[in-house]
Amino acid sequence: MSETIQNNKFVEITYTVVDQKSGEVLSAIEFPLGYVHGQNDVLAPEVAEQLEGKSAGDTIDVPIDCNRLFGPRDETLVFTDRTENVPEEYREIGTTIAMENDKGEIQNFIVTRMDDKTLTVDGNNPLCGRDVVFTLKILTVRDADEKEIEAGGADPGEIDIDDALMLPI
Questions:
Q1: How far is the C-alpha of 163 from the C-alpha of 52, rounded, in Å?
Q2: Which residue in 42, 47, 45, 51 sits closest to 5, CA to CA?
Q3: What pLDDT is stored for residue 156 in this prediction?
Q4: What is the pTM assigned to this prediction?
Q5: Which of 90, 94, 152, 155 could form a disulfide with 40 if both were Cys (CB 3.0 to 4.6 A apart)?
Q6: CB 29 within 8 A of CB 47
Q7: Max Cα–Cα distance, the chain, nearest Å
Q8: DSSP symbol at 7
């Protein structure tokens, strides 16, 4: 009998995120993402809930209304400035810039557009305002060891940083 996903199980998945309206693949994670079910919030609650009871080899589709998850798009979080006013290390589409507001709160902005004279950053989550489908393939389900439970995922000492994948925000 194969193990099923439940609390304190180590789970590895891959997934794609597809915009329901356009059919565009917004993100595809082919490097296994490992986590301990019930021990962290690496996945949206709707996704984690749908994984309960599934086994290695299963594939599931989970529709998500990203307005519920991230809130509606806020156009006041989109700024355009002259490129010359932006440090050179931030002059690339997809770069994340952490900015602090007057209350000391950190907000991440992503460079979304650039031309010869201007650069635009957006503080909205890239999934904001979209209806998407997460398609998850379950690769591994097993009992998590104590270190994994404590870390909420793979033991950090066992992760090869060269194999790590930077996920988009």
A1: 28
A2: 51
A3: 53
A4: 0.70
A5: 152
A6: no
A7: 62
A8: T
User: Is residue 78 a contact partner of residue 121, using CB atoms and an 8 Å limit?
Assistant: yes
Q: Which two tokens stand for residue 143?
A: 């009992």
Q: Which residues of the chain have pLDDT under 50?
A: 157-169
What stretches of the chain show up as alpha helix (H) in DSSP?
45-51, 66-70, 146-151
Q: What is the DSSP letter of 157?
A: G
Cα 135 from chain centroid (whole Å): 13
Using an 8 Å Cβ cutoff, are 63 and 20 in contact?
yes
For residues 102 and 137, what is the distance between their CA atoms, to the nearest angstrom?
43
Q: What does the block give as tokens for 82?
A: 């002259």
Contacts 24+ apart (CB under 8 A), 46-51: 47/134, 47/136, 51/5, 51/11, 51/13, 51/136, 51/138
Neighbours of 42 (CB within 10 A): 17
Domains contained in the chain, CATH given = 9-69+129-163 (3.10.50.40), 74-122 (2.40.10.330)
- Are 151 and 62 within 8 A, CB to CB? no
Query: Is 3 in contact with 53 (CB distance < 8 Å)?
Result: no
pLDDT, tens digit, for every residue of 126-155? Answer: 888 899 999 999 999 999 998 988 887 775
For 10, the token pair is 């180590």
